[in-house]
Amino acid sequence: MQLAAARCGFAAKPSPGALISPIIAAMTAIAPFLAWLALALFDATQTVVSMHAMGMQHDWWTLFFVIVASWGVWAAATPVALALLRRFPLPSRVAGNWAVHFCACLAIGAAWTCWAATLEHALNPFAYAKGPEPFLPLWKSKFIGNLVGDVILYGAIAALSVTFATRKRLSQQRELLAQAQLAALRLQLEPHFIFNALNAVTGLIREKKDNEAIATIAALGDLLRRVTDRSERQLVPLESEAEFLRKYLEIQQVRFGERLHWQLDIPADVAGAQVPDLVLQPLVENAIKHGIAKRAKGGTLHITAARAGDTLTLSVANDGPALAAELRDGVGLSNTRQRLQALYGDRQSLALLDTAQGVQAMLILPYREQ
What we know:
Elements (H helix, E strand, L loop, with lengths): L1 H6 L8 H38 L6 H11 L1 H16 L7 H29 L11 H11 L1 H60 L3 H18 L7 E3 H19 L3 E6 L8 E3 L4 H10 L8 E10 L2 E8 L12 H14 L4 E6 L4 E8 L4
Parallel strand pairs: 2-4
Antiparallel strand pairs: 1-3, 4-5, 5-7, 6-7
């Protein structure tokens, strides 16, 4: 697309995602290096300060450099260890997986102590008058002395890898659950609402109200286009959700006539807030079906949105009768609750409240903008 735009003489503007994704990837790649650097600086500082406090006389700057540089082996080996963990995952019932990681641990430990012994032998950071120790005995003592530490460090890499992999799988499962709940909401909307809308159109045609019938069919077509949208988007701007509700309520108005009054109050400062697609429709449908439709004279539906800091509150209130206990967790509301849990965890809530004026559904979400 960018190439085509360039050929036409226009510069394609990269999307925010296209700019941010490489930065996130780079930060993810450099994170292990920064973690090992922090550990190396801590180890070197602790060693130098404690030895100096004990009155020892060494080449402090050289010792500091040798300790920091020796940790470079673990920084370089971490991508290899992570690749092995992906290829031979732990924990595992396969003995071969454990054998692979045991050998990898020994190999990294051998390389680490070999590099540390090389630096110490070459630079003599302890300033021995007779010179540094011979390389082979120095490496052997370091290798044996650090075996337990090697296992702990490799185990820490494995534990972090398993933790992040588990979190990624849980995130993917939550996304799949949210998509399934959205699909369920779409399927739930289609049958009875379409039938009622078509019956209303039939009534308009019989009454020779052709313009109203055409307008209703057009509105119904817009709704069905949104409902049958097969995209995997979960979040939409609140103003888009409000426009969908407006068309939905206009069609319901044809059915109920003067029995249905509604107000849609969405302030401009929250119009861009990201909300789950079709999240309000089940609440509005319940309010009409179990509230306004139960009254011979109908009633009023009031939909509002308000922001308080990092919280967005959506309200659907009607002046109908109190909602029966068995209706407070119907299929639509149950799907909505499960979907909200999948998308936001415990940072959301959905409550049905009996008020002096009727029934209010109150939805609280984290405030986000695109």
